[in-house]
Each structure stands twice: as C-alpha cells, then as structure tokens.
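Quick board copy: two proteins, each given as sequence then tokens.
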Amino acid sequence: MNKHSHRLAAVAAICAGLAGSSTLAMAQGDIYGSRQQALPAKVWNTLTGDAPIVIGHRGASGYRPEHTLASYELAIAQGANYIEPDLVMTKDGELIARHEPLLARVDLNADGSIKMVNGAPVLNRTDSSTNVWQLDKYAGRLTVKTVDGQKVGGWFAEDFTAAEIRADIRAQERLRDLRVGNNAYNDKLVIPTLQEVIDLAKAKSLETGRTIGIYPETKHPSYFKNFTDANGLKRMEDKLVEVLHANYGNDRNAPVFIQSFEVHNLEYINSKTDIKIVQLLNGSGTPFDDSRSYAELASAAGLDAIKAYADGVGANTNLMITLVGGKLGSPTQLIANAHKRGLAVHGWTFRAENVFLPNEFDSSADPAAFGNMAGQVKAFVDLGMDGFFTDQPDLGVAAVSALAVPEPQTYALMLGGLAGVLAVARRRKPVQAV
C-alpha cells in the first residue's frame, strides 16, 4: 500500500470506525496529531465524504471589525475550522492582514482627482478599515495610485512601516453603515501581522484541543511585485512561503490553504511549496495576470489547467448556482467537474444580512437584518460544496450541524479531514517561476 492509500485508509477509519467516540487520539490515526472530537457518521456529498469546512471570512467579520485578532478569536470560538487573513505589505516588507492595500479609501472625481467637500476628502464608507483618515499626522500620505489598472485614492499600507501601523493606526468597521453595531469596536484594535494570526491559531489549537487552520490570501500580488521589485524587498509570495514554512514546515498536510485571484503567482508559489493551494474564481471578469476569464477557468478545460498547480478552487456562489431574478436558479456542473479532477470547491461568501442573501432567503426588507443563511448554505452543501467562507461562523457551523445525520453534539469541534485527504488529489509538476 502506498502512502496515499495509507492516508485514505486512516481517514476512512476516522469517519467510519471512530464516529461514536468523543475524541480521536494520535494513535488512532488523527492526521494532525492532535485530539479531536469525532466527525459525524454522515457521509457527505463532498470530495472526501467529510463534512464541509467552515472558514471564518476575515474572522467573524459579521460581529467584529474584519482582520483583527478579536475577529479571528471570535471565529474560532464560534467553531470555524479555518480563519482567513487577506495579506498586504508594509513599506518595510511585513505581511499584515488587510482586505486591500488601502488602509482607508476616498472617493474620486471623474477625472481621477480626489473628491473634496468643505476642504476635506470624501471617505469611501464601504472600503475604509482603519482610522488613518482621522490622524492629522498622516494627512500628507493621502494619494492616488493605480491598482490592477484602476485608479484608487487613499492611504496605502506600503507607504507606512509596520512600526507606524502598530503605533497608532487602529481598525474600524469597513461596512460602517450596515454593521453599525461593530462601530463600537472602532479605534481599539491593532492591525495584526500574519505571524500574529498564526500565533493565535496555534495557541487556540492547543487551548481547544482542535486544529485551527489558516487560509491566507495574497491580495493584488502583481501590484505588490512591482512595489517589492522597485524597493529591493522580498516579493510577497516568497515572504509568505518563508513564514508558513517556519511555522508549519513544507508540509501539504499542514492546516493551511494559500489562495489568490491571480493565476501565475499561484503557479510560482506551487514551485516553492507543497502547502495546499486554491485558485479563487470570481463570478465575472478576468484575473489581472491572465488572459482567460474566470468563466473559462471554471470550465472543464480551465479546471484541467488549475489541477496542475492547485488543490482546489474558491468559487463565487454564482459559479455554482446561477442567480435568476435575484433568486437561486439552476446549479452548474462546477462542483461535479472539480471533484472529477480531485479538486475541492470552497464557496464564497455566505453572509447572513438580507442585502447579501438570494431573495428567497430574506427575512424582511431591512438590508441589515439577518435572513435564512442556513437555507442558502444547504442548497450549496447539497451539491457537494467542500467548505465555505462566512462572515458569521456561528451560523455556518449551525447550518452544517443541522444537515448532519445523526446530528453531532458539537460540529464546532469537527476537524476538516479534507486537508489530509487532498494529498491524493494532486501532485503536480512545478511550473517555471515568474
């Protein structure tokens, strides 16, 4: 029996033979070498037959300002299997957790100049995640840049050292007019580094006795490659791999997925590490560094190309079930086609507020009120989705628990066996580095 067969046998033993026990010991085949509660006996319609993993999207960003240790810690407490840090770079080459290079964004006029009202720049109220716009000492760093071909204005992470960001720049709720309750945490939470996010995941793994994985995303890697090349810094991908190897080793069974919307940076990462890789697929448009559209990449031929360098795809929900008149329409073949190629499918993004839900799951006309996210999750899990990103991990965990037969005592302690089994799904040849 080869090593892949041994791994499959171990996971099968966990799912079938240990379903009635309360914990899994290392000697009983736990692929992470830690103690976990047994998985539900249900065989799911996923790539591995395991329950879908729940990924805390920017932490528990429905309840705390995103990409803060408070948000990640809450996601873990709510039962998330993975937490997701989006990564950008500082002036001195540190990786920090932010959704975009912009620490705060301002609106622009049609000619690309900064829009001003009464002598002050107009804050973009859906894409500003720190208080930097309120700090007079940094007023001179407001600027306009071109990111992936689009002009944007604001304060950019790469114009600040990690020490400056640590000193007095604090997180704010990005969706400040929708998630108004989260504004109570504004100006109190520091901007964490990737290492701090890893340290939290490791500490909570020891504290809870379950493995907490991380799911880092390289944001705008082509943009940051231009920045690092111009300033003699280590490129984002190399820095990421260095940090991950220092913490987890070069191990494809590590509880880590690396993701990106670009293509060639993932091919480059694949040549540097055995850690699992996920190609993100948007519902429209084209990767900045590739001529193929996301629709083409989601096709059977596109998935054939992806499996050469990745272990899975992170798919916009519309690529799995189309929206028709604001409601869920017909399922596509994306999940089935991906599974045929040994690729996992992780869906994004599941959010509880009515404004984000398909219309049939709305609870009222109030955009901020919670609707039936569990109903939306069920539609995708029934298709075989292997995991999903959610702003409300507690609701995601509860939705999966409700689908378990028999229902587990606490799905929050379920370990995503997907991470170990995916070792059989792909062993691809490295591509030429770019």
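And the next:
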Amino acid sequence: MSSRIFLAFCVLVALAACQPAQPDEAFIQPTDIPPTDQQARTFAVTEHLRVVNYGPGMPEKQNLWVALISDAGPFQRVISMEIEPEPNAFITDEYGNRYAEFDLSSQPMGDVPIQIIYQVEVQPAATDLSQCVGDMPNDFTHAELHIESDNPQIVALAEYLTEGKEDPCEKVRAFYDYVGDNLVYTYNGRDWGAQAALGPMGADCTEYSDLMIALNRAAGIPARYVEGVLYLEEGEESLARTEHAWVEVYLPGSGWTPFDPTLGRSSITRDRYFAALPADHIVVTRGRNPSPLRGGSYFSHLYWPGDSTAIRIEDFGWAIEAVG
C-alpha cells in the first residue's frame, strides 16, 4: 500500500477491533416477557451526523455504516423510518443488527448531512423469575474484548458472590447488586471494560454493563451487551446519557431477560431495573463488538484520503421526543 494511503476510522468510541464468535441463531431473539402495568410508548427519534471533507482533495474511497433501530422481539416495533440521503445498501451483521451503508467516495470539499428519522413503539418489560430451572445455551458465555470473564480476579469474584447459590436467578441477583453497590457512576467517554471497572476510576453505563456480563459469563450464565438510546424526562440528565448500554441475561424458564445495572445503581430504583425495563429503552444493537462497527458504537467510517484531504464525522447525536 502506498505511504500516502491510510485507513481512517471515525467511531463514537475508538477501540481495537476484536470480533466475537458468531452466536447460535436459535438464541438471537428474546422470549416474550409479560408486560408491566405501564403503557407502551411511542417516540419520534432522529439520528443525525455530518461527514465533513475539509479538502482540498477528494477521497479515493469512503464508506460509512450507521446502525439502524429495528424491530426487537415483543418490546420494540419500528413504525416508520426515513433516511436522507438514500443509502447505497443495507447489511445485517452476525447478531442480526441492521446497518445503512453509504458510499461517499469522491466527496468534494464540504459536508454531507445524514439524518434518520424513526417512529418507534416501545413496550415495558417485566419477567417472572419464579420458574428459574431448565437448560441454557452455550452462546454468550465466553470472554471477549471488554468482557474479560476469564480474568482470575473476575472469576474469583463470581465464585465468591455465588457461594451457596444454586439458582441462576439468585446468582444474577448477586451480580446485579454487587455492581450497583460497588461501582461509582462517572461519565468517562471511554470504554475500559469489565476488569477496569473493578478499579477506582469510576464507571459509566459501558463499565456497569461489561462487569455484570463478565460476572455472569464467569459463572456460565449467558449474558450479552445491548446498546441503544434512552429517553430521559426533564431533570433526569444526571442519571445517564441518551447514548446508553444495558444487559440481557439468558435465564432458564424466561429466556433473554433485560437488566439495567446503571439505572439500578440506587437502592431506591434497583428493583425497577432488575429483570425489567420501563418503556424508555430503545435498542440499536445487540452484541459487544459487532463487526460492522469495527470496535466502535452506533456507526463506523473509513476512507482513503486520495489526493491529500481530511475528513471528519461531526455533530453526531440523537433527538428523542415522546409522542404517544
């Protein structure tokens, strides 16, 4: 490759690209979870960004992949979706997540705004864990990037927390409570992983989720990462950010079951997010390291600069409005 050609990745969170093993398709979809007495809600969601070419040249090759909000089992239904400009292709990854692919090769100096407008209906979720017996899959039980479930410190902690507990649901409760009691919420804009969450530097939703997943996997309980967006009411901005991550654990008798250890960090709200979610979590992707994101979150971008040009992704963000 010529020395003037390089590969540039623009991702929301810049990480090394390490791909997990492809999961068994039989366990991709969540099982039905009885709804709570809360009503379903409908949201108008807008995702936006700009691809800015600062010039003076044009890229020889440039592609952008944006993860799309899609239907997600009984909890989430996309009523409508409008994408501007029209994508060149749609792709699906190893977890069933969908992406719009944009070919922006030979983009002239200037910017290309991209906007995706959705209307999404979200159902609340609550799970009856009274029958926590049965078989579990082997998928989502192994260590991967940021989920160091084979780390000796995490293995020892999982063993300590589950001593004397035979019921998988009791084990999950122990992990959930430990994460809520011991991590200190501090938005860091980084992606440190489960092992680092045991340190003193503070944690945000990625570390809360990574550690809970790693503890479950260390105990042989399937758990996976969910990345999406969170609708926050006025005055709730200190609880979390719009870009949010949470956890699904596969429990016998219940199937894939949601948990939000970040919002459950307070003893006042802990039970509200244990095996349950109110109708304000919108799934974008499942899986910790989906291959199209190349180690990042929500989108990935690569280009070959061609005749000396610089390109940046700017103004990425979300707007969410409750409309029903």
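Board note added afterward: DSSP finds four helices and 15 strands in the chain.
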